[in-house]
Amino acid sequence: MSEPTKAPEAAQLAEEAKLSPAELKKRAKAEKQARRAAQKGEPGATGVPVPATNGTHEAPKPPKQSGPQEQKAQGSQQKGPPQQKQKQGVQEGKHERTGSIQQPLPTRGMPALAGPVKEVQRKDKKQVELFSHLYTQSRRQDIAGASKNVHPSVVALGFQMSSYEICGSSARCVAMLVAFKEVVQTYVTPSEVSLARDLTSRHLSPQIDFLRSCRPISESMGNAIRWLKKTIVEIDPRTPEQEAKDYLCDEIDRFVRERITVTDQAIAASASALIKDGSVVLTYAKSSIVEKTILQAHANGTRFRVMAVDSRPLFEGKSLATSLMHAGLQVEYLPFSGIAYAVKEATLVLLGAHSMLSNGRLQSRVGTAALAMQAHKADIPVIVCCESVKFSGKVALDSIVLNEVAPSEELLLPKATVSHAPALDRKDDDDEDRQVRSLHDWRDIPGLQILNLMYDVTPAEYIRMVICEYGNVPPSSVPVVHRLANEGIM
Amino acid sequence: MPSATVGQTPSLSTYLKSLKHNDIETSIELFISLLKRRQIKNSRPCAIATISLLLRVVGEARTRDAQQLIERIRAVGRRLVAAQPREMAVGNIVRRVLENVREVAERDQDAADGGSEGSTSIPSTPIRGETMRRPAFPTKFSEFSPLHGAATIPQDMHARAPLATSGDSSPAFGGTMEAALQRPPLVSSNTSYAGQGPAASSLFSILQHPQGRSPYATPPTGTQSPALKASPFKGDEGQTSASEKLDIKAEVITSIQDLQKELEEVDDEISEFAQDHIHNNEVILTHTSSQTVQRFLMKAASKKRKFTVFHAEAYPNDHLETHATIVNGGGATAEDADERWKPLTSMGITVILIPDSAVFALMSRINKVILAPHTVLANGSLIAAAGASTIAQAAKTHRVPVVVLSGVFKLSPVYPFDTDELIEYGDPGKVVPFQDGEFMDKVDVVNPVYDFVDAELIDLYITNLGGHAPSYLYRIVADHYRVEDIDLSGKAEGGAVKAG
């Protein structure tokens, strides 16, 4: 009796596979209960009984059905059974054909069962629901589980990136390509395959996966990888291996030189012309290209001063301020809350980019959008310096779609040795144990989450101009430049 | 004497304790030094300390005269405000107390005058031109001009001569007063307008009323008018019985205690409105560790509303308190267990802590922004913790409503002529530790503590009186403060009265 029912059951499972996981969970729980009841009840019965009585069923079925229904009586609503009756109607044909009870579609009568399970889950959830699409891979903490093919220099690079030692889109791109040169050199072509086909899939992919597990790869890294894969595929299979490898290394060098190093110099020269005597340049976090621009302007002899705005938790602005200070510039350093003060005096805003999106928006360190908005309201020109390797074909309407969520622990302040709240003598430790907790216990506090975003998207109307190696363009020209520069790679 | 406070950091609680056994001058000096050293910060502690101090000042005042009481309070208030001009709550409380005193004195004068037909007594605020008689007609003619006095001046105005204010509140009246000094007094019965029913019959008088007091309050005949040219008020008060004088002080003390109670209940009254504004599935953004906002949200949570709160941490000035408030709830340092309250998370609300930089990024998903100010200014704009301006601007960009919760004690009658002066700059050591010697030496580190938020960015104010649009706040200012108290400097009243 069980076999014929299993087949339609399987078919039903297939069509119900597209139901939500919550409903599947409900069904699983119901199945378990039914199995328990089935063991107590008729031995010939199959998996899941109908949770509600159905008048058309044979007589022996109702007692079994009412059993589990009583179990669920505590929570199920009155409308459950009638609804299930309706749903049963759909299955009517199958029922009569096989003469057995089919699994019903999950209906509203079921939620009471799944209730407690869901409650517990929600309490333990420390991920912000708004960004659930970004929590797919937690950051790697150690080397355990890495593929054996991962090159040691890539391992080192991965940890340098996840600890923010190498931070910043261009820096990561260059460091990755340099590491890949070593990877290419250590590659040995197996006998029956050609380098062009095999290098990418067998040797390069594990490296990229490892890097991705340390920290989500940036747009510049993505463009560079696409270019590299294209270059590898275009290698003539007849080239001897060492020559091919040397060719690849040379090409990587050329890429870095042309698209990053020389480009940076060109952008710095162009942007530094915008800084005039008496300018007050406002900048945010640390962008290597903005730093180069400012140093170039300073080397040109322009007299100006810089306001560096900074934010938690990375404090990149402080390292920018330090390096500019060492170069002899007059620097003012402000926390993020000082933006309203900063825009009163600034005459020019220079920003770096993580990537430029095809709808003209700027994706950059979180906080850039707020600064650009304040500057726009104060009629200060906002200029973005961005190499074309960072231009992207993606579009985003807000900062939620494309982003990176960093581990929340990075937002916690270093543990204070002295507790923040003074200890009072608690003779009456009545009601809920009111021990003074710190933010470090955030995981134990239900309902408390900490969100550490890395990027935000600045609307195009706040950006006056984008400076890239192809010239000074408005933000609306980003897709054109992207096609031009990254063409053939996409 | 203050032995109990030795060894403890001076703060509001130690000050309140010391108030009980210090003499008045010491207490005033202590408060001034606390203000100057920023050991008492933020509006509510300053307001509580000010009102306790003023209670003692009034309690110990030897005078029975309302006018002298006002002078005493003004003198004390002047010193307190000068100690820390940016703590506007101090000045607000002083002005509220002054308003109470004036109101009590006026009420008592009313009672003293007995049944004059609808007359209000001469108040102890001699500057209020419109009370007894028809209000002054402002004339701009100089005293030396032959045209001076040619404009229609009610004949009984000169009796109020010596009470000219200088400059600030009623410049127009001042001119008239001095002019009137030179004219011979006329018998009141000869006065043309006064006497034929309420002076409001003339549209003129409506235009003259500075405080919006009903012109029906002016008496038809100037009962006390011409005879009392020199110092009508002093004389008047001399006529009232001693028992009514006693009442003034007692009533002032009662009204100050009412004000104290209002300060304590501010949060509860504001939270009463929480249900109207926070509903299920809302996403709310807030900022800093404000007790008012937390209580407001808790009240909504206690009504079984489930919502989400994004809490910006206000680094570097308030982030530690914000973390503590989110994790532990409030009043952790309060000795009284009743004053402690649970954190929002314990009521089933999801609270998400974010750094200030993420405000714009998340604003597209926020439904409401709730802010708590440091001070609210008379035109509806406010001074709030640094970062509030960015939040309010971002909210405006995304069309998110901004709600500001503030008690009336934070509402200041000052108009923000120079917004830069109202911003206080704090300790740069909080941004970069002073151990970074070279950095601190060569780089200018700025740490603004407050932000100015313009009235256009605010959608709603919720005070303990209810919800209002920013454009309505001037009315509340007018209800709670007197024009002559806006400037606490001494030259206004004291000289004129004593001259008489």
UniProtKB/TrEMBL annotation, chain B:
Gene3D superfamilies: Translation initiation factor eif-2b, domain 2. Keywords: Coiled coil, Cytoplasm, Initiation factor, Protein biosynthesis. It is found in: Cytoplasm, Cytosol. SUPFAM superfamilies: NagB/RpiA/CoA transferase-like. Its main location: cytoplasm. It comes from the Eukaryota. One of its GO terms (cellular component) is eukaryotic translation initiation factor 2B complex. It holds the Pfam family IF-2B. The keyword Protein biosynthesis applies. Residues 249-276 form a coiled coil. Residues 105-132, 210-242 are annotated as: Disordered. GO terms for molecular function: guanyl-nucleotide exchange factor activity; translation initiation factor activity. Belongs to the eIF-2B alpha/beta/delta subunits family. Component of the translation initiation factor 2B (eIF2B) complex which is a heterodecamer of two sets of five different subunits: alpha, beta, gamma, delta and epsilon. Subunits alpha, beta and delta comprise a regulatory subcomplex and subunits epsilon and gamma comprise a catalytic subcomplex. Within the complex, the hexameric regulatory complex resides at the center, with the two heterodimeric catalytic subcomplexes bound on opposite sides. This is Translation initiation factor eIF2B subunit beta. It comes from Oleoguttula mirabilis. The lineage of its organism: Eukaryota, Fungi, Dikarya, Ascomycota, Pezizomycotina.
